[in-house]
From TrEMBL:
Record organism: Bythopirellula goksoeyrii
Domain of life: Bacteria
Protein name per the record: Neutral zinc metallopeptidase
Tagged with keyword Plastid: no
A Pfam family of this chain: Zn_peptidase_2
Protein keywords: Membrane, Transmembrane, Transmembrane helix
Coiled coil: none
Keyword presence, Transmembrane: yes
Transmembrane parts of this sequence: 6-23, 143-166, 202-222
């Protein structure tokens, strides 16, 4: 199990998709960086948030490349240095996407509420599933009762899959909101929205790839531990 080549065969489609999506994000982001906008990423996000009455949501700059995210616990929108101060279609597109998450939070958007509620289980499942599976596999021959760790490990990883599936509509909706808000507020010219669309659509494929990998990994676990039984 530790170096099973069949695992990589199982998740190969997800790995190929993830590689393509990352390359697509890189190329579309670089192209959209060349399209000038009147507002920076931070200013665009601030305008969108204030227009929605979300003056309580702060905006901070964080380190890292494309490390942008919205923190619903602290009500903070954190933008990477490539987005925070940049005046480009790439920057305002990503900033508007994260602002979209803040709007979802303020409106109690159901999939976001479900996703936030699933975070603890997904975090536990991601950390504990492999330990349970390995321990169950190694220890059950000597202590049969510990064989229960295998189905528990699979169930724990299933929480990761559920989280990823819930996350997809959350991300798609945030991008749809961003595209609409940028046009409605006149932040990006209609002709230049093609660049924003390409960046956000490419980013969406990274979430699809992550979900596919989680699903295929779960199927691998089920096959690995139960597929050879009569």
């Amino acid at each position: 199990m530790f170096f099973d080549p069949y695992y990589f065969l199982y998740i190969a489609p997800a790995l190929v998709l993830a590689f393509w999506a990352q390359m697509r994000v890189k190329s579309t982001f670089a192209a959209a960086q060349k399209v000038h906008t009147s507002l920076s990423g931070a200013a665009a996000a601030r305008h969108i948030l204030d227009s929605a009455g979300l003056q309580n949501v702060a905006i901070e700059q964080v380190a890292g490349h494309l490390s942008d995210h919205y923190d619903p616990r602290d009500k903070v929108l954190r933008l990477s240095q490539d987005v925070f101060g940049a005046r480009s279609a790439a920057a305002v597109g990503i900033a508007a996407h994260e602002a979209g998450h803040a709007l979802q939070d303020a409106q109690n958007y159901a999939p976001l509420v479900l996703r936030n509620g699933a975070v603890p289980a997904a975090t536990f499942g991601g950390n504990a599933s492999m330990i349970m599976l390995i321990a169950g596999m190694l220890l059950s021959p000597k202590i049969p009762a510990l064989g229960i760790l295998v189905p528990l490990g699979i169930a724990a990883f299933a929480c990761v899959v559920v989280f990823q599936l819930i996350n997809l509509p959350v991300e798609f909706n945030a991008s749809a909101r961003a595209k609409r808000l940028l046009v409605d507020h006149g932040i990006v010219a209609t002709d230049d929205m093609v660049y924003v669309n390409r960046v956000l659509n490419a980013a969406a494929w990274t979430y699809v790839a992550a979900t596919l990998q989680a699903v295929l990994t779960l199927l691998y676990y089920i096959m690995r531990f139960y597929g050879n039984r009569d």
